[in-house]
Write a structure and sequence with these properties.
The structure is a homodimer. The first copy, chain A, is an all-alpha fold. Chain A is built from twelve helices and no strands. Chain A has helices at 2-11, 15-34, 41-48, 53-59, 62-85, 91-108, 112-120, 125-135, 137-152, 161-177, 180-186, 193-211. The longest helix of chain A has 24 residues, at 62-85. Chain A is globular. At the A-B interface, helix 8, helix 10, helix 11 and helix 12 of A face helix 8, helix 9, helix 10, helix 11 and helix 12 of B.
């Protein structure tokens, strides 16, 4: 696969790419910890224990760093989804695994949506299309193929793939995007591993009940 | 109801409050049209055909205008929801009407989430709590009461009200918040009335299937 070979090339850069990975990991940690994507490049370099000149070397600027971080965080999930697509599991199981994977990605990288929308802000139509093609379309396409497979073989209802895309993303990401409401409405401090598991069980069960063919119609 | 009397007071201000309403309506229109909440106060005054000094008079600053706009857009929906809560309709129907109302609010005011998150950005914990108490908690509480009523009388499954709050908001708002993907992934220009109706039917049916008690368990 093209993407995989691209990835191995990127990963084969030795010590240099280690500094690059460390910078991305430092940015990711700081964005999660501080609950904001507004982290200074010098804070990132300090956390990564890397000379701050290297930020410019690898990413040019803050925007370049944000694009690379999105790439890092989204591409693993998309590759897993594409692998899942080509297994011979039932479509129901593929869709469930997709939902679980999506929630786990948001759990690990709670800044993902902020990052995406910051990059989209004031971007030209061409740039918006490029960002969408790289970070949104692959997952949306894979999700549509799983849905269509399940509709064809009677596992799923006749759900609109476009509308379902927004339902699934929204149902999975709101818990992390709007987590301020956890504290202010439900007096719940943060999302720990136990709450992550409860959220996965809840979301996966609720969405799958809405997608799966009704028992009497199978 | 306290809120209602507060509202009548605000609405009874005569010509002055007309200018205030016109400014809010102009801000709302421009934010929808330009798909951004970054609208200058002078553009808002120009669209409202109101002297721009009045912006300062009614709202102090941009932040004040944004708070008042959120108040205007959210309070009608919350009042309707509270009225709905006290009718003797089945919980299933109340929940469906709540979902439809929520989607219609996002359809009318596509900037709602951007506005909310802009106000929350860099706000103190006290301020975050205040914003949440005014704009988030009332709807979350009403939704919980409808859910609990339906669980008690066997209409609903034993769904966690906190987790469901995020599911419903996310499933309803993502279509509007991430509508760039409509164009870039699905080649769909904007959300017209027909698409709004399809989205309502899809979302309401999918979510309700995930909440309603399973036929065999009734």
């Amino acid at each position: 696969m093209n993407k995989k070979s691209l990835k191995s090339v990127k990963k084969a850069g030795g010590p240099r790419s280690n500094a690059r990975d460390q910078l991305l990991e430092a940015a990711s940690q700081l964005m999660n910890e501080r609950d904001t994507i507004d982290i200074s490049l010098s804070d990132i370099a300090e956390r990564a224990k890397v000379n701050s000149a290297l930020v410019k070397y690898y990413f040019q600027n803050k925007n370049g760093l944000m694009m690379s971080l999105l790439e890092r965080d989204v591409s693993d999930g998309t590759e897993q989804l594409e692998t899942l697509l080509h297994t011979d599991l039932p479509a129901v199981q593929k869709m469930e695994m997709h939902i679980v994977g999506l929630i786990n990605t948001y759990y690990r990288c709670r800044y993902l949506n902020k990052l995406l929308f910051a990059l989209l802000r004031d971007s030209t139509p061409d740039r918006t299309q490029e960002i969408s093609d790289r970070f949104v379309k692959p997952a949306a396409d894979a999700q549509r193929l799983i849905l269509e497979e399940g509709i064809r073989n009677g596992e799923f209802r006749n759900v609109d793939p476009m509308l379902l895309y927004f339902t699934i993303i929204g149902a999975c990401d709101q818990f992390f995007t709007a987590h301020f409401a956890l504290k202010t409405v439900y007096n719940q401090d943060g999302i720990d591993d136990d709450l992550r598991k409860r959220f996965i069980a809840h979301t996966s069960s609720l969405l799958m009940s809405g997608i799966k063919a009704e028992p009497e119609s199978v």
